[in-house]
């Protein structure tokens, strides 16, 4: 799998993580109730993994912020 890099501000990452969390919830719990829905368990798993990584990055920035202000 090819890797790419993306530079984001903390605020941009917060927004992206929030949007991803909302979309993941929709795909996991709402969309399956729609007629004709064809979901992918792999997409849900990949989405959860990606969201977890984004949340870990945000947690790292929260822990680093107090040290930087010293």
Task: Give an overview in words.
The protein is an all-alpha fold and 70 residues long. It has one domain (14-68). Helix content is 70%, strand content 0%. The chain has helices at 10-30, 41-68. The longest helix is centred in the C-terminal third of the chain and has 28 residues, at 41-68. The N and C termini lie far apart (41 Å). The relative contact order is 0.13. The model has no long low-confidence stretch (mean pLDDT 92).
Question: Mind sketching the topology for me?
Answer:
Elements (H helix, E strand, L loop, with lengths): L9 H21 L10 H28 L2
What's a concise summary of this model?
With 70 residues, the protein is mainly α.
What key attributes describe this structure?
single chain, 70 residues, mainly alpha, 70% helix, 0% strand, elongated
Report mean pLDDT, rounded to a whole number: 92
What's the gyration radius in Å? 16 Å
Topology, number of strands: 0
Percent of residues in beta strands = under 5%
What's the helix count? 2
**N→C terminal distance:** 41 Å
Order of helices and strands: HH
Domains, number: 1
Shape: elongated
Major sheet characteristics: none
Query: What is the SS-derived class?
Result: mainly alpha
